[in-house]
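Tutorial, part two.
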Amino acid sequence: MSEAAPTGPEPKPSGGFFGVARKIDDAVFNAEKAVVSFALVTITVVVFVDVIARRILAPDSKLGELFSKLARVEDLETRAWVDANIAPWVSLVLGLLVLGFGLYSGRRFGRMRAGVTEVSTGRELGLAAGFAVVGVAAGWGISLVFASLDSWMVYAGAFGLSALVFTAYHAVKKKEGWPVRVGSGLLGGALLVWVSVAYIPEGYTWSKQVSLMLLLWVGLLSASICVHAGKHIRMGAAQKLLPENLRQYLNGTGFLAAAVFCALMTFLGFMYVFAPRASDDEFMTEMFTFGGTRYVYGFEGMVGRGGLLEGTDIPDWLGILAAPVGFGIATFRFVGAAVSAFTGGSYGESGAEEGMEEAKKIAEEEEARAKAEAETEAETSTAPEEPPAPAAKASEEEE
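Running the prediction step on this input gives:
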């Protein structure tokens, strides 16, 4: 039995300089995704814990403030009594009502979608009440945790619990690539727990500064990731106006313009962070030697000033370092995309057409269905009607 002939040309194996460059780019891409994921998890946990801690450890109460305003209480002693004796009980009742009503409404909506009409009201109210009590008890337990444990313990527990939930989810679902995700979750969780134990300072006032620093890394690395995936913003009107054989040159020119801009931002970011200057001082840290001149960290740069993030021992230049790193990687990728465009490649091209494939398929199916229905209606309307049965003649013959 003969084998079927291939339907198209076999893909050429990528090798040489461009093959090696693409492998390096893919490795950097995976590292960027890991850093972004790590930063997002850290931001989520840090900000969440900070908000909860501020509210739990605050000496005043928002409800107490509202009651005092409504009752026009201005005496500080009376206000403190309201915060300590009225606001907690009102908060408890409101929490029970909100949690119970939330569960009851959710189950009611689910029954409506399933078409279930027979409902045991007592059972539903009992479930709602039990859920409310458990939720309030959990909130009370969390408040005790924040009030009695140090901040590094709270963060270590939050990071560890997040990592366990992430790894357990992927271990149970077992989707494609789940062993890598499970291993990454365990490794990342262990790293965050170690950082919490070893480096997190006392209190929670530093969380905002650290989160903003990580957010800067997320934004700039995500921009570089978009260049790799071809998801960057572009003006496609001019491309559609040009002939097919000229579009690659327009794309290449656009990539080069973007590369020039990113290179300029890389240079400015590098100068802002390091501000290198020529010096023969052997006690200053050397960055590089160029043209026989020794360049060191400039004191006017962020590294030379030696500033720290508020409430931490983290150097403040680590946040701005995201600018030269993110824009630098994007510069190389835009240059590679320009070379690919000029040589007829597709690296860095937008995936808009690929994203529209499903929509086009659905539209074609709808159009074919509408056309078939129209043809059926046309055949039905043009078909000759059958003559009525001769009922009268049949009755005469019977007589």
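The radius of gyration is 34 Å. In part three we will examine how such features are distributed along the chain.
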